[in-house]
Amino acid sequence: MLITTTKGDMEESLLEKREGSVDNDIEMTTWVEYWYEGELVHRSAHVTLKQPVTFGDGVAAALG
Amino acid sequence: MCTTFMKELMLGQHQFGSSTLVSRTSLTAPTTDTFKAALFFASATINAATTAYGTTGEVTNTSGSGYTAGGVTVTNGTAPLSTNTTATAGVAYWTPTASFSWTALTVTTAFDALLLYNSTQSNKAVSAHTFGSQTITAGTFTLTMPSNDTTSALLRLSTT
Q1: How many domains does chain B have?
Q2: What is the DSSP string of A4-59?
Q3: Which of B12, B82, B83, B119 is at 20 to 30 A from B107, Cα to Cα?
Q4: pLDDT tier at A56 (50, 70, 90 boundaries)?
């Protein structure tokens, strides 16, 4: 599979792949990085927001 | 507060004071405004006190042209809805019908905020959303929208 990198499209097999995720009350985020000879050449991230913006009596009470 | 009123606020069906608006073409069947979503660097101040979109602190490309000033146009395929769960608890809610996505993007300065704003009405701010700081290198940044329901919708007006 070809990966878009800062050096142009490269075969994934030539790259070191690092992945991670964050899952908390605010967001669920995943990211993937590709490194080539110690250099970051690709990083993508995918964020899903979990906390809607809510306006209402409850919010007003919480804010005092 | 009546739940349907909250939905009607989202639809612009009540006017308590005089206001200056960009024309919505018709007084009785006004057109829908266009909303946009812009990204901001972690160093910017984007929060509930933000009144309108501005370029100060907005994400700029480290290289390439994956990000355009002003952000992306929000896909608004479903009008606001409202529902009552009890006689005293109701929610009006709305969520964009497509995720926000930037491709072929390189932004190596950390960004952590998104501002939703009304580009039809003088770029007035709607909501600010923050997330863990991100950088993108020759990649894609996607913000997936939550489910459009009473508990998860992106924007909620609630009586409780």
Answers
A1: 1
A2: EEBTEEEEGGGSEEEEEEEESSSEEEEEEEEEETTEEEEEEEEEEE---EEEEHHH
A3: B119
A4: low
Residues of chain B below pLDDT 50:
none
Domain presence at residue B92: yes
Owning domain of residue A35: 2-63
Angstroms from A14 CA to nearest CA on chain B: 17
Q: Count the neighbouring beta carbons within 10 Å of the beta carbon of residue A34.
A: 24
What pTM was computed for the model?
0.91
**Which two structure tokens, joined as six digits, stand for B9?**
């606020």
CB contact under 8 A, B158 and A40: no
Number of domains in chain A: 1
ipTM over cut 0.90: no
Q: Is B104 a domain residue? A: yes
Tokens at A35, concatenated: 């490194």
A6-52, pLDDT tens digit by residue?
A: 999 999 999 999 999 999 988 999 999 999 999 999 999 999 988 77
- At position B103, the amino acid (one-letter code) is T
Say if the Cβ atoms of B140 and A55 lie within 8 Å.
no
The minimum CA-CA distance between A54 and chain B, rounded to whole Å, is 5
Could you tell me which residue, B145 or A61, shows the higher pLDDT? Answer: B145
For tokens 């709305």, what's the residue? B94
Please give the Cα distance from B2 to B127 (Å, whole number).
Answer: 22
Q: Which of A6, A40, A58 sits opposite B158 (nearest CB)?
A: A58
